[in-house]
Description:
Blueprint: E1 2-6, H1 13-24, E2 28-32, E3 37-40, E4 47-50, E5 53-54, E6 60-63, H2 70-82, H3 91-98, H4 100-107, E7 117-118, H5 126-132, E8 138-142, E9 151-154, H6 157-169, E10 174-178, E11 186-193, E12 196-204, E13 219-222, H7 227-239, E14 244-252, E15 255-262, H8 268-274, H9 278-289
Parallel strand pairs: 1-2, 1-6
Antiparallel strand pairs: 3-4, 4-5, 7-10, 8-9, 8-10, 11-12, 11-14, 12-13, 14-15
Helix pairs in contact: 1-9, 2-3
Amino acid sequence: MNVLILSRNKRLYSTQRLFEEAQFAKHNAAIVDYMHCNIISEKENPVVYYNGQSLRFIDVLVPRIGSSFTFYGSALIRQFEMQNIPTLVKSQALLTARDKLHCLQVLTKIDVGMPKTYFTHYFYNIDEIITAVGGFPFVMKQLEGTQGYGVFLIKDRKQAGEIINAHQSANKRFIIQEFIAESKGADIRAIVVGDKVVAAMKRQAKKGDFRSNLHQGGKGINIKLSEEERQVAIKSAQAMGLEVAGVDMLQSKRGPLLIEVNASPGLEGIEKTTNINVAKKIIKHIEKIT
């Protein structure tokens, strides 16, 4: 099987692991920098060129699109979809997952809990917004932020006004969410492949921070999910149309609360924390859907 991995850097841990496991399974794997690809559309001939050659004879596409390149990456995936080439991440699923608000809007249609979320363009009623999400403290997130960047814990009205004004001046969109105090700076990352959770870990924030992302200094801890947490992860990935997803949840008095679904989850933290070969499970799943 000819496997094409789209990645900006072949040395990235996740890219390298998928490449290694594809080769180990006797597939022909190649890594292409998607930002060096060109999209050419003409009558009945949607093609992608890389280094002057058309990318054809591909059996499956494995996109690893960075958040800064979502628009171009999704357009490139769509071009392969026009050629009826199976892809591990569909273009629309990538776009939806990368927009936190759109993601939550889709997930309100399924039976999963989530923190109360507020989105508006009208901030003259700031007191009403603060009351709606349960008062201080509350969480503010940039819609396009990743890896814990662009996430703030707002503790008083002065801080709220300053950060909201700064974001409006910079024309940055954001959502406001209730703060789940009982999660104690921790969340759960579950990796879903197909219709199964193949690995999970708890991420604990470093002292003095509430963001549990490993990129922000959080620590990964191997855990076993409850059946309810497992079902939330699977239903969320399926609702988003994702074959592979990193589903993030908070543990609360109300049960698991969904906070985000990642269309291109990193493998390094989860593999090193759990000692589970997630890359191999992804390649095995590719073999089933191709």
